[in-house]
Write a structure and sequence with these properties.
Helix content: 10-25%
Number of strands: 8
Amino acid sequence: MFLHLTSQIIEALRPYVSEKVVVDLGAGDMRLTALCARKLGAARVLAVDKEFGGVPRGRGVVPHPWLPRTTVLRSYFADVRADICVADLALVSWPANHAMPGLVHLLSCAKVVAYIGRNDAEDGTACGPRDLFEHMLSRDLLAVVEHADNDLVIVGALIPAGARRAPSKPEADGFAAWGAT
């Protein structure tokens, strides 16, 4: 089930969202954007997605019509200026399992990255491209919430160049689905 937000996931996100600047990369139906803006008290949220009904591509960042402190940008990740994605938290939920040029570069602009998805090493399904998992392993692990429908992995500061920490189970399952660890 896509984006089943358990109370454990919501509470794990709260300290990284409350009064913080958040960018939701691949915002989709904006449920996570709305959660951050309305219930978790984000100072400001930027929702980025290649498809937003009613928002023409190329208009730049525009205010969201009904979510407080929220702006939207209809764009591919590769076309987004990194400076507008500088944030306390970058969210990526249920990302596609193919290359997404620009995603990792935008994630690197955030102090903290939160990933929500489901990987299954047994059936070989991954929620996210390989370079996403590689990027996550280059950051300190802050929190993991595992659930049958969704896993949450929160990572923080970059660790020294070239170093890589041990993967959490959701990250290891993502790598296994790609055929490597």
